[in-house]
Write a structure and sequence with these properties.
Strand content of chain A: under 5%
Shape of chain B: globular
Number of domains of chain A: 1
Number of helices of chain A: 13
Structural class of chain B: alpha/beta
Strand order of the largest sheet of chain A: 1-2
CATH superfamily of one domain in chain B: NADH-ubiquinone oxidoreductase 51kDa subunit
Oligomer: heterodimer
Chain lengths: 316, 438
């Protein structure tokens, strides 16, 4: 009767682990990654590997330097690196991707205390930093096709045309589903993103509230602006699906309450609408998520449910 | 005519699905041979401890009162074997605390105390005093003196008596067996309480993973629509008092209040059956049924044991361990206490003894704010937020966010992917709040 464990109840636990959840997100992103390589060639794969590798290295090193528990095994750095890569143009020089990963992990995540403590999404913050630093490289969109490496042929993103209020000259909507349009490497193939989203829903990793509210708000707004076809183009363009399914649902930087998720999703949608319709930038998904990230603590406080049996207005 | 059995009227928020492991559900409780020695702690229930009424060397018989207290919230303690008092002094309970206790060496013949007689009960006062004298406390695990629970303030009108046979904790099947093996005792107890306390409606609530129990109760429950069986969804913690009241009646017990505040009394099924037997025979609470199970137990069983039987004797009777256990739990796996040796005795409210070869254990990592704890909390709290407040010792905000509503059911910690011991934080937070009040 030696060495018995006398930990606190409960003595049973669910099978969920942080690592498994992160692994599920990676699995859900694989279709988008595969389609990125199919559409943009091996340079896209190289960029993804560099981003993931440098994110993992940055995580491991910074934990080591800070003399903190090593957390690289929780796979959250893999998710951040992969998400960042999928948010970049496939033609971006590899070193810029690496720099982005280091910014995401070291500045945005570890400087605030590591996993769970960052108040904005690391991949989104890093993408925005890269966009501000390397505006040219970050907005030069390779035309998708069957290329082996980086053929240097670039063109305008569909959002530029949509900004003018027209869908003329754009590829057919079905091409958007299969990734035949210019854009960041992970955002172009809508079907791959939706498949990943369905996987996350089935695995109960994410709740559908944020993606539905986010995408629904953008769709509704654009419907008023230009009708169904226009709204569908808007939904399938830019980083909306990638952002709504994979970035806005980041646990750490979104509310835990159901009504909080509604406010967060609708808020993201409204800001995206405002930027796309009236802003000077063509795309607003990243900024929308980043801004809403900052409001999360307040949204959460406002929407915490009353404890069971607590009286309205009374003591808690 | 109502549809029988009834189904719940309201759906609980939160809760978790736990594997049931009701391995012993077909096993009628066996009577264990009389142990050589029993230890009867003077603190076996919520409330004031008893004072020993016997001295070393005294001869006692089964059912003889050996401890009592003048306090209202307390019940007497009775000898559970016949024999000689070996010692009166401090004993250690399973949880680690120490209290006064009486140790009795058994002579093995289990001779009944001559002065026991069935109490004459014709009105509420007589019923309550008989229930107190019987020494019964909530046998479902909480251990609250039953006579206190049944003494409803006169200004509160009770319209529903809920007999709790939900038994939502995994592994435990003694309430299930009570419903099947002693259904007539259950029914007799139900009608006695109903008539003397003038409660119009009784609901016997059972989770739907116990079809045998539902069937047995359905067969004998009255067809006059005043005693009904209700089939509840099997979701932990369905049997928690406030959850049960909500499922059965749709009423929310107010924060800090009791079921009586919404016209209900909740009483465990084994407690009801015991009261019926006591009123018939006058034999006080000297034995109880427990489930002995878990991967490390050679022969899992339901056992009827004298109160005060040492855990080691029970394990021996069940064939010992298959392998050195990593964890032994007194009670169910969701709310039970992990113990570190087998010296402690069975007390009145203990319903299970579980031993596991492997402890189910998760290493603690940082919170990723996934919100699973909040989604699982049946009291609609946000455990992850409360944890932060407890770490910051912000007692005011903890209270505002409802930490005192936490019943430590463990749904939050069960669902946490980061292995955070959230129940520990809740316990600590409540303690901080109590200290801040002083």
């Amino acid at each position: 009767m030696a060495d018995m464990i006398v930990s606190v109840s409960p003595h049973l636990h669910s099978k969920d682990t942080t690592r498994r959840i992160m692994l599920d997100v990676v699995i859900a992103l694989l279709p988008a990654l595969v389609m990125a390589v199919v559409r943009f060639g091996l340079h896209a794969l190289a960029l993804a590997l560099v981003c993931v590798g440098s994110a993992v290295a940055a995580e491991a090193l910074s934990r080591k330097i800070m003399k903190r528990e090593q957390t690289v095994g929780d796979l959250s750095a893999v998710v951040t690196g992969l998400l960042l890569a999928l948010n970049l143009p496939a033609t971006l020089p590899l070193w810029m991707g690496a720099l982005g990963s280091v910014i995401a992990i070291v500045v945005v995540k570890q400087c605030f205390g590591g996993l769970g403590q960052n108040f904005v999404n690391p991949a989104i913050a890093a993408r925005i930093v890269l966009l501000l630093c390397f505006a040219g490289a970050m907005t030069s969109w390779q035309q998708p096709g069957f290329v082996l490496w980086n053929d240097g042929v670039t063109g305008a993103s569909p959002l530029a045309a949509l900004k003018e209020g027209t869908t003329e000259g754009l590829p057919a909507l079905t091409d958007f589903l299969f990734g035949l349009r210019a854009g960041s490497m992970g955002e172009v193939c809508a079907l791959a993103l939706i498949a990943g989203g369905v996987y996350l829903l089935v695995r109960r990793v994410i709740s559908p509230i944020i993606p539905l509210c986010f995408i629904g708000t953008v769709f509704a707004g654009m419907l008023l602006r230009g009708g169904v076809t226009f709204a569908l183009y808007e939904v399938l363009s830019g980083g909306l699906l990638l952002g709504a399914i994979f970035m806005a649902t980041d646990y750490v930087t979104s509310p835990i309450t159901p009504w909080g998720k509604v406010i967060f999703g609708v808020g993201c949608g409204l800001i995206t609408l405002a930027i796309r319709l009236w802003g000077s930038l063509p795309e607003g998904v990243s900024y929308a998520i980043l801004l809403m990230n900052i409001f999360v603590p307040h949204i959460e406080k406002l929407t915490l449910p009353r404890p069971f049996g607590a009286r309205k207005g009374g003591k808690a | 005519m109502k549809e029988h059995p009834l189904t719940s009227v309201a759906k609980n928020r939160g809760g978790v699905h736990v594997a049931y492991h009701k391995n012993t559900r077909y096993m009628t409780a066996q009577r264990m041979p009389v142990p050589a020695e029993v230890v009867l702690p003077m603190q076996q229930s919520i409330g004031a401890p008893c004072t020993p009424l016997v001295q070393k060397g005294d001869t006692v018989k089964v059912g003889q009162k050996i401890g009592d207290s003048d306090a209202f919230v307390s019940v007497p303690i009775h000898a559970s074997v016949s024999g000689t008092v070996n010692a009166v002094g401090p004993v250690r309970l399973a949880g680690g605390s120490v209290c006064q206790g009486v140790t009795i060496a058994s002579v093995g013949n289990m001779e009944l105390f001559e002065e026991l007689h069935a109490p004459a009960v014709t009105n509420l006062e007589e019923l309550l005093s008989a229930v107190r004298e019987s020494g019964v406390v909530g046998l479902g695990g909480a251990g609250f003196p039953t006579h206190v629970k049944l003494r409803v303030p006169p200004e509160k009108h009770i319209d529903t008596l809920i007999v709790n046979a939900a038994e939502c904790e995994p592994y435990i099947t003694v309430d299930n067996r009570e419903a099947i093996d002693n259904s007539w005792d259950v029914l007799s107890g139900v009608y006695t309480l109903k008539e003397i306390m003038r409660i119009p409606h009784v609901v016997i609530a059972v989770e739907d993973n116990k079809p045998q129990a539902i069937e047995a109760l359905e067969k004998i429950a009255g067809r006059d629509n005043t005693v009904d069986v209700m089939r509840l969804k099997s979701i932990y913690p369905q049997g928690a008092e406030k959850m049960l009241v909500y499922s059965v009646t749709g009423r929310r017990v107010p924060d800090g209040g009791l079921p009586a505040d919404v016209g209900c009394i909740v009483i465990n099924i084994a407690t009801v059956a015991f009261i019926a037997r006591y009123l018939k025979t006058g034999k006080p609470l000297v034995s109880r049924s427990i489930t002995v199970d878990g991967t490390a137990i050679r022969n899992p069983l339901n056992l009827r044991v004298p109160i005060g039987t040492r855990l080691a004797d029970i394990i021996d009777y069940c064939g010992g361990f298959t392998k050195e256990p990593e964890k032994i739990i007194f009670g169910g796996p969701m709310m039970g206490v992990a113990i570190y040796n087998l010296n402690a005795p069975i007390c009145k409210q203990n319903n299970a003894l579980l031993a596991f070869e492997k402890a189910d254990y998760k290493t603690e990592h940082a919170c990723i704010r996934c919100g699973r704890c909040a989604a699982a909390c049946p009291m609609s709290l946000a455990p992850t937020l409360l944890k932060t407040l407890v770490s910051a010792q912000d007692t005011e905000e903890m209270k505002r966010r409802g930490i005192m509503s936490c019943m430590e059911c463990g749904c939050c910690a069960f669902s946490c992917p980061s292995g955070i011991p959230l129940v520990q934080y809740m316990k600590l937070g409540k303690q901080l709040l109590r200290e801040a009040k002083k």
